[in-house]
Design brief:
- 29% of the residues lie in helices and 18% in strands.
- With 326 residues, the protein is α/β, with parallel strands linked by helices.
- The chain has a 7-stranded parallel sheet. A 5-stranded parallel sheet has the order 2-1-4-6-7, covered by helices on one side. Strands 3-5 form a two-stranded parallel sheet.
- It is elongated, with a radius of gyration of 22 Å.
């Protein structure tokens, strides 16, 4: 058994415009689960009490997080309000001797709904009909169905598994690609990432939901996308940098891709000069696929579940893997 940890003091950091609403959720969740725990909320690094000691820090991957942590006399645990933590590796704060956890599992429903909506957007030619409506054009066309089509899901964590479940309910054939092979899942045929090239030629849709790590950076290259059959659709709900944007633009221009739904980008906000803006075959959204009205409540459920483990001397449920960097 690991040594148990105390949870007497918690520091909550958040963007100032969100601090008031979110701090109420955080304080209520923590004090309900751990009566007597003191919660301090700050919306800027300068507000963090200098030299103070906290048992846990709860925060998004804020650009001023290192400055805030540097003001503390002690902190033992940092819990991130996101599942993706790729930004922290370039941030100058202690990682090796501090417990790091993340909010894995809170995005599954929202992002799966987004992925299904994106596939329906292109299957039902909503892109075409929106443009026709703007131009006042009445032109009918035959529409596609998701039922019977094949979707390859690259990344079968919490999000990919939920996408697989929803796609199965739509009658789709689902192939899940992951680091290591397992037996058949309830909602997908699972294959290792080494077989990605084998399954792409049969895919009508490719949904990418991988974390950004040294292993996955630029993984979805032009060579990978070219293995898709002509007319396939890409849905990217991973992290910016996993999918090559230049490759997507090139294959859209050539007609190899029917369309692309893109929620994440190599640079965010997306630069004004990007060719993805106003592209007729692109459904472009500003990194919102994981947002939902229950985000903070779900993130705090994950924190509380981790806190119950670590205060009992057990391993956390959603640790950050400092070797794999996610």
């Amino acid at each position: 058994m690991r040594p148990s940890r105390q949870l007497d003091t918690v520091l909550f950091l958040q963007k100032p415009e969100l601090l008031r609403a979110h701090s109420e959720v955080v304080s209520r969740a923590i004090t309900d689960a751990f009566p007597g725990t003191r919660v301090v909320a700050c919306g800027a690094a300068r507000e963090v009490p200098s030299g103070a000691c906290f048992d846990a820090v709860i925060a998004p991957t804020l650009p001023w997080l290192p400055e805030a942590l540097a003001r503390l006399g002690r902190y033992d645990w940092v819990h991130f309000l996101s599942a993706g933590v790729e930004k922290i590796w370039d941030m100058p704060f202690r990682k090796d001797d501090v417990l790091l956890t993340k909010s894995s599992g809170i995005h599954g429903v929202a992002m799966a709904e987004f992925a299904l909506g994106a596939m329906l957007y292109f299957a039902k030619s909503f892109d075409r009909f929106v443009e026709q409506a703007r131009q006042g054009v009445w032109q009918r066309t035959w529409l596609d169905e998701l039922a019977g089509r094949t979707v390859v899901i690259l990344g079968m964590g919490h999000i990919g598994s939920e996408v697989a479940r929803c796609a199965t309910n739509f009658g789709m054939n689902v192939i899940g690609v992951q680091r290591t092979s397992r037996d058949e899942a309830d909602s997908a045929t699972l294959v290792p990432v080494q077989r990605l090239g084998e399954v792409l030629p049969g895919a009508n849709y490719l949904v990418v939901c991988l974390p950004l790590t040294p292993e996955t950076k630029n993984l979805v290259s032009e060579n990978v996308l070219r293995r898709l059959p002509r007319g396939a659709t890409l849905v990217d709900i991973s992290r910016g940098g996993v999918v090559s944007e230049s490759a997507v633009l090139h294959l859209l221009k050539s007609g190899h891709l029917r369309g692309a739904a893109l929620d994440v980008f190599e640079q965010e906000p997306l630069p004004a000069e990007s060719g993805l803006w106003r592209h007729p075959k692109v459904l472009l959204t500003p990194h919102v696929s994981g947002t939902n009205p229950h985000y903070m409540e779900r993130a705090m459920d994950v924190f509380i579940a981790n806190a119950r483990c670590v205060t009992a001397g057990d391993a956390p449920l959603t640790p950050v893997d400092t070797e794999r960097r996610y």
